[in-house]
Amino acid sequence: MTEADGTQHGWSDRLPPDRAWKPRSGVSRAARSVEQDRAAGGRHRRVVALDGGKRATGSIAFRVYSRTRRIRAYLRWSEQGRTRERYVGEVDGPSRAANLAQAWTMARAAGFVRDETLPVDSKATSTAVRAVMTANKGRDTKPELLLRSILYRRGLRYRVNARPIPNLRRTADLVFVKARVAVFVDGCYWHGCPDHYRPAMKRSRFWQEKIQGNQARDADTNQRLREQGWSVVRVWEHENPDSAAEKIIGVLERRSTLPPHGSNY
After folding, report:
1. What is the C-alpha radius of gyration for the chain, rounded to an integer number of angstroms?
2. Which structural domain, as residue segments, surrounds residue 179?
3. pLDDT 10s digits, 128-179
């Protein structure tokens, strides 16, 4: 395969580079699931239909054989406690992200996966909207878990889903009490992310007012906490967790309250 700029993929005379198929070392299970969601277009697009009307969530795995020097993609899922897999085809993108997206497209075209169907009583207008609404948990979302894991490994300790100010009914995702730093991990849809929020096509006025209400509450929360001497850090769920962690650590350092490795909050 030759790109317009003359770059060739296919690796006919050498093995594919690791960046084209291997996951990054040290990446958590949750992070790999997020990676699969992004490549597939959402978790709701990773459905593997099983016998008896059951379903499983699929993932793409890669293998490289020295004899062929090709990346082979396989669809994997769990069924009755056992890992099953199905060959999808060969991919030849320059990066793992590109090859995951390519493999998911191939798997969908072959009928190996399908989109989640809406329940009869669902209020969502589409499976994509339902996936966003379902993922809007009050706590322990994947982005939160990833961020907490990184901060914990850096020796930081914190309270989870706590009120920075006890008599103020506002809960932060992470609270550094001694530092007086409150961290909020905002969902892209419910908080109106400028990069990823897309207005609903149906009941648009209702959802617009809902998002605007959330944004107004966020601004009010920021002001109330700052008036009480707190620093507020807001990160979007789509942000790189390592970058988000550095942002938080930077705030702690500026307040001269960064604890030594292993210290409590």
Report:
1. 22
2. 136-254
3. 555 555 555 456 688 899 999 999 999 999 999 999 999 999 999 999 999 9
Burial class (CB in 10 A: 0-12, 13-18, 19+), 11: middle
CATH number at residue 242: 3.40.960.10
What's the predicted TM-score (pTM) here?
0.51
Contact 75, 60 (CB under 8 A): yes
| Number of domain units in the chain | 2
Count of H-run helices and E-run strands, the chain: 6, 9
Please choose, from the candidates 171, 150, 142, the residue with its C-alpha nearest in 3D space to the C-alpha of residue 159: 171
User: Structure tokens of 123?
Assistant: 């209020």
47 in any annotated domain:
yes
Q: Does residue 113 contact residue 107 with C-beta atoms inside 8 Å?
A: yes
CA dist., res. 78 & res. 198, Å (int): 33
The label of the residue with tokens 């030849």 reads 92
CA 12 to chain centre: 34
Query: Which one-letter amino acid corresponds to residue 15?
Result: L
**Spatial contact of 20 and 99, defined as CB atoms under 8 Å apart:** yes
- 190, 176 Cβ separation under 8 angstroms: no
Q: CB 51: neighbour CB atoms within 10 A? A: 6
Question: What is the spatial distance between Cα 182 and Cα 232, in angstroms, rounded to a whole number?
Answer: 5
Token pair belonging to 136: 């809007």
For residue 236, is it within any domain? Answer: yes
Reported as type and span, the H/E element at residue 82 is strand 82-91
- Six token digits for residue 245: 């962690």
Q: Is 95 part of any domain?
A: yes
Bridge-based pairing of strands 181-186 and 172-176 is antiparallel
